[in-house]
Amino acid sequence: MWQVSPMLQLYQPMSKRKLRILLTAPALGPLGSGENGGVERRVSFIKGILKSRGHVVSILALKGSKVLHSEIIEIEGNPPVDVTRKNGILIKKRHGPSAVDNIWNTAGQLQKNYDVIIGLNYDAPAYKKSTLFSTPVGHMITVGSLQRTTDRALAEFAKRHVHCVSFLTLTQAKSFTEIIRPYILRPGAVVNRSEFIFHKKPQDRLVWSARITPVKGLRAAFAVADRLQLPLDIFGKMQDVEYFKKCIADFSDVQYTYHGFVSSKKLSRIIGRARVMIAPYHWVEGFGLSIIESLACGTPVVALRMGGPAEIITPTSGVLCRPEARVEELCRAVQKAWHLNRQKVLERAKDFSSEKFGDALEKWIFTVERSWK
């Protein structure tokens, strides 16, 4: 029977104990490149929160990674190439030495120097290699179920180490059908409100922010902007150039601006000037970091009732549409969100404070350390 792990409520960490923690970064590209999507910002704020609480944190990541004020152990190796998603299945092709293998081989060699290792990968080798470590390992899953072989490897790890796999939302966890007792971090993320500034008077614009790949629904955003005759601001790493070009060609009347993968400061300024963020992601989003960033600017969000967004967006902070929603339904949702009170939108963002997330994160990490066997 599927049930939420009770350990989150029962275990109170010994907060005065300070741990030596190794974070292993995802291996789609160096941190700072944008290839890993919102997980890159997640690595940064996890490191910052743990460090602020007195823990010593190191990061194991691909060569060329950049995280402010961080000790990075750089690893060479080839990330997956030609990463595509078809019918919910993640396809990864690797050439040469695997970056994932190299990261976790190195983690195994260094494990005696740390009290806990926290992985942010979605890769079967990470779960298979780490299950036999002597140092406790926790895996924080940031995506929904994508690939059966990877899910099975994760389920085997979770059976052996019951409380050592965490998820960001209940909806996300339910997509992993073989995980019997998922551990849910609540809240599953934090927004740095010093970087994302509230904007009271927006312009008549739409904004979309994600990796440029079909599952993130950029085409739907273009279609809505075209139907409503609104300019569209676009943010995110360019991962599928041909898809982007086709969106432009098919909706040639849309006045769009592609800003690329940018700093939080620039992202905040432009998200904040938009009336509505449209986020029609066509997969089970683990959380949806860009959504709470939008809320922190006072900008309401229109999204599909799938994955993390379904648990984040409330009637006062945005509008949820059916997963199969077409352009007409998305347009009506944008028109409804248009008139929401931006101050109330901001109030929802306050539920994702660094203090609340830090408490949840520490409880889980101490649970990993205690329950490892």
What does this structure look like?
This protein has 373 residues and is of the alpha/beta class. It is built from 14 helices and 15 strands. The chain has helices at 7-10, 39-52, 99-110, 124-130, 148-160, 170-174, 218-228, 241-250, 264-273, 289-296, 309-312, 327-337, 342-349, 354-371; strands at 20-24, 56-62, 71-75, 81-86, 89-93, 116-119, 137-140, 165-167, 183-184, 206-209, 232-235, 256-260, 276-279, 301-304, 318-321. The strands form three sheets. It has a seven-stranded parallel beta sheet, with helices on both faces. The protein has a six-stranded parallel beta sheet with strand order 12-11-10-13-14-15, sandwiched between helices. Strands 4-5 form a two-stranded antiparallel ribbon. It is globular. The relative contact order is 0.14.
Keywords:
14 helices, 373 residues, globular, alpha/beta, 7-stranded parallel beta sheet, 6-stranded parallel beta sheet, disordered N terminus
Task: Give me a quick take on this structure.
This protein is α/β, with parallel strands linked by helices and 373 residues long. The chain has helices at residues 7-10, 39-52, 99-110, 124-130, 148-160, 170-174, 218-228, 241-250, 264-273, 289-296, 309-312, 327-337, 342-349, 354-371; strands at residues 20-24, 56-62, 71-75, 81-86, 89-93, 116-119, 137-140, 165-167, 183-184, 206-209, 232-235, 256-260, 276-279, 301-304, 318-321.
